[in-house]
Structure formats: C-alpha cells, structure tokens
Amino acid sequence: MHPDSDWKINLKALEKQKLTLMVVKDGEVLFRSSKRGIMPLVDLIEGNMSNLVGTTVVDRVVGLAAAKLLLWQHVRSIDALIATRPAIDLLRPSGINLNSETAVPKLIDPKTQQQDVYETMSIKHDYPELFYEALRGELLVFHKA
To answer: For the residues 8-31, what does the mean pLDDT come to?
Structure first.
C-alpha cells in the first residue's frame, strides 16, 4: 500500500522512523525531518520543495501556525497525531483534508505553560505570507542570539 493511501499508515510510518515531519506524493516520500517544532516546515518551504501542491504532509503536531503555512502551500491533505481546534477550523473550509488522532484546544509550551510562541505569532497575522515573513524574522533573531 502506498504511504499516502491511509492516514493511519502514514502516522505509523512517521513514528516508526522517529520523524516529526514527512511529505508524501504519489506514494513517494519527498521529504523527511526529525527536527522539532516549526523548523521542519520552515526547512521544507525554504528548501528545494518549491511545489507542495497535491502532497500529503504527515506531522506530529499541527497547530494554527503549521496550518497557515500548509494552507499557503496548497497541500492536498495533512495527517497529524495531534491537531489544534484553530487549525481544524482554519482548514475545514479550505478543501484541505486534515486527519488527526487527537484534537486539542491549543498548543502549550511545556517549559512556560503558556500558549506556544509561534501559535501566538500566527494569530497576529491573517495572511500566511505575512506570518511566514514574521516567522523568518523571528527565527533569524533567535539563531543570532
């Protein structure tokens, strides 16, 4: 069976390979990452994956920040272990199919017990392109520190 034909198979493959993000198209895995947080999506967008149209993105956690970036990239579907309600609400009218094992109200940073910083940032930007530019700026500042 092709990796993108069944969302539960995709999630099992993600866990078995100890990945955090995987991109599949026509049964072929195009991208893999084991980095944590938002970085795999940034790497995906910044890297050689210039066309994500028609792909299935398999991610451990899809919050509003990830949902905005994936909506902007016109992916076909998203399979996630955990998805937030805001991500589900954003994607529902878009035609992007989101499958998840668990839905949670929001992402909480385990260190601070506050809402995830990238989720908060994504709320401030209605347009995915503007959010992405703000995100890139934040990541550049973070990496220089």
So the answer is: 94
In single-letter form, the type of residue at position 132 comes to Y
pLDDT in tens, 71-112: 999 999 999 999 999 999 999 999 999 999 999 999 988 888
Contact 65, 131 (CB under 8 A): yes
| Whole-angstrom distance, CA of residue 95 vs CA of residue 97 | 6
Q: Distance (Å, rounded) from C-alpha 55 to C-alpha 57?
A: 6
- The residue among 131, 6, 134 whose CA lies nearest residue 63 is 131
Enter the tokens of residue 127.
Answer: 């347009």
What fold does the segment set 7-144 form as a domain?
Answer: Cytidine Deaminase; domain 2 (3.40.140)
